[in-house]
């Protein structure tokens, strides 16, 4: 297939279920993605010069009328929605998540294009009352330039869309480095953007293997063509990238790991609290940065909560292939994460946690939904980001005590609590050291609201009207009259 933008895509489907995809862009980038029948993905980047392509396309894109840019973003939304089913199948095959969740994620991705298409027309500046009669002061918003966007595998299209939609709306051009576990979803996303009329060079995708990722990351950080780096992923990699953006003084946005407390107070509606904990813990098989990581339950309702939670786990959770009907728990993404998870559980049990459910490897990368009680704050399950279908319950006695425990972490992404005591609701919402709070509600993420953390969970916001700020400068202009 030779596309309009000078991009050549060759898809070879050989016998034995082997698929080879070669993408050669006009800008001289050669990316080879090989997907074997066994589900193994090998990606080789031969040359990386895409940030030059993005820089070349920048002037044209930023000078486009804001209404015209918005029209293209609306069109991307439409293309994503039209291709929702096809993209969802590939997404589910790559990532393992249930098809329903994958389809929902494509809708989530589309929502950011709609939102930022609308917001792009509202990037207002200010007129500032001048202290001097001979001067007039105003501010305007201007795009930053080329944006490098590095994204994880847990929301293979949602995380890309949240960044790309904001960057394009602000007038930036992009280089996306998707996760090595989910490159094909990223390439399908790029195809949808191309079909929607995003001009050549405005959006570039560079998949690469895990072995080459540092090289690509270092190149993007060092490149003077790249003005802003936005990363979603682990805290360790975020710190690595942060330190490498110093020499070129890049703008930086980081969405890093979470360690969400989920607190159930005595006045809580237990039915809603159990439903909320189930949704927060087991959505995406626990592989989200806002998943409930430590579930604190007041001692007066602890046993009742545990008994209802166990029943809900037994009744609702079905493990298997994401493409199979009725499945809501897919596999763990890869062996590295699987081994990490097993170690966290085993080390916690060997230091005294009680295994109420699960703790079993079910073959391949499938891990049984697990419940641990009697967890203490020194166990790995309470100190590390679990990133898997493992619920850890910690009893508490007093509000001050649980707030202290909840804040005893260097992460501060999301936090949840269930209470029907209105004074307590205000106190706790204000006291939690996190960027997002769910009060009697586990699902907080939406394109209209700011997503981002405190402490080592990151820098900056995504989504909402604030999401544009990461990709634009505020320029002050002073007129002498
Ligand atoms: P996880 O451990 O969950 O895979 P990572 O933070 O390692 O999370 O990965 C998130 C994204 O960051 C992926 O796209 C991955 O390829 C990328 N990544 C990992 N290490 C680096 C690096 N040194 N430079 C640039 N990107 C990186």
UniProtKB/TrEMBL annotation:
Aldehyde dehydrogenase domain residues: 52-476
A GO molecular-function descriptor: succinate-semialdehyde dehydrogenase (NAD+) activity
Residue stretches spanning the membrane: 7-24, 30-50
Keyword Transferase recorded: no
Keyword Aminoacyl-tRNA synthetase on entry: no
GO biological process, one term: gamma-aminobutyric acid catabolic process
The entry's keywords: Membrane, Oxidoreductase, Transmembrane, Transmembrane helix
Pathways involved: Amino-acid degradation; 4-aminobutanoate degradation
Family of the protein in this entry: Belongs to the aldehyde dehydrogenase family.
Name of the featured protein: Succinate-semialdehyde dehydrogenase, mitochondrial
Organism of derivation: Chionoecetes opilio (Atlantic snow crab)
Taxon lineage: Eukaryota, Metazoa, Ecdysozoa, Arthropoda, Crustacea
Portion of the parent chain present: 136 to 616 of 616
């Amino acid at each position: 297939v030779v596309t309009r933008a000078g991009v050549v895509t060759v898809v070879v489907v050989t016998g034995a279920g082997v698929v080879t995809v070669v993408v050669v862009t006009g800008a001289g980038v050669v990316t080879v993605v090989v997907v074997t029948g066994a589900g193994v993905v090998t990606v080789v980047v031969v040359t990386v010069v895409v940030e030059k392509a993005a820089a070349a396309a920048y002037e044209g894109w930023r000078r486009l009328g804001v209404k015209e840019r918005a029209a293209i973003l609306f069109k991307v939304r439409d293309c994503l929605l039209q291709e929702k089913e096809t993209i969802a199948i590939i997404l589910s095959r790559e990532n393992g998540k249930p098809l329903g969740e994958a389809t929902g994620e494509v809708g989530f991705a589309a929502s950011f294009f709609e939102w930022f298409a609308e917001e792009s027309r509202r990037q207002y500046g200010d007129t500032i009352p001048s202290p001097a009669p001979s001067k007039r002061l105003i501010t305007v918003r201007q795009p930053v330039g080329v944006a490098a966007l590095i994204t994880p595998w847990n929301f293979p299209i949602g995380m890309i869309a949240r960044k790309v939609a904001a960057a394009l709306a602000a007038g930036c051009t992009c280089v996306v480095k998707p996760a090595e576990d989910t490159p094909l979803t990223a390439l399908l996303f790029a195809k949808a953007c191309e079909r929607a009329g995003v001009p050549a060079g405005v959006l570039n995708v560079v998949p690469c293997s895990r072995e080459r990722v540092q090289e690509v990351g270092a190149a993007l950080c060092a490149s003077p063509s790249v003005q802003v780096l936005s990363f979603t992923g682990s805290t360790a990699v975020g710190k690595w990238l942060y330190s490498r953006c110093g020499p070129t003084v890049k703008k930086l946005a980081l969405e890093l790991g979470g360690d969400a407390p989920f607190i159930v107070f005595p006045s809580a509606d237990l039915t809603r609290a159990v439903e909320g904990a189930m949704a927060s813990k087991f959505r995406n098989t626990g592989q989200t940065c806002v998943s409930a990581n430590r579930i604190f339950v007041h001692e007066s309702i602890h046993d009742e909560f545990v008994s209802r939670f166990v029943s809900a786990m037994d009744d609702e959770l079905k493990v298997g292939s994401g493409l199979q009907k009725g499945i809501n728990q897919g596999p763990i993404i890869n062996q590295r994460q699987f081994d990490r998870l097993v170690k966290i559980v085993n080390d916690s049990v060997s230091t005294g946690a009680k295994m109420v459910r699960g703790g079993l490897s079910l073959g391949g990368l499938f891990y049984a939904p697990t419940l641990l009680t009697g967890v203490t704050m020194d166990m790995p399950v309470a100190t590390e980001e679990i990133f898997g279908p493992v619920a850890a319950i910690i009893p508490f006695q007093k509000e001050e005590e649980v707030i202290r425990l909840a804040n005893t972490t260097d992460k501060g992404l999301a936090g949840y609590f269930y209470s029907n005591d209105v004074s307590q609701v205000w106190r706790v919402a204000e006291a939690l050291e996190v960027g997002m709070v769910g009060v009697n509600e586990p699902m907080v993420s939406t394109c209209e609201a700011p997503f981002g953390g405190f402490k080592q969970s990151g820098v900056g916001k995504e989504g909402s009207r604030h999401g544009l700020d990461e990709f634009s400068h505020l320029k002050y202009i002073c007129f002498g009259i």
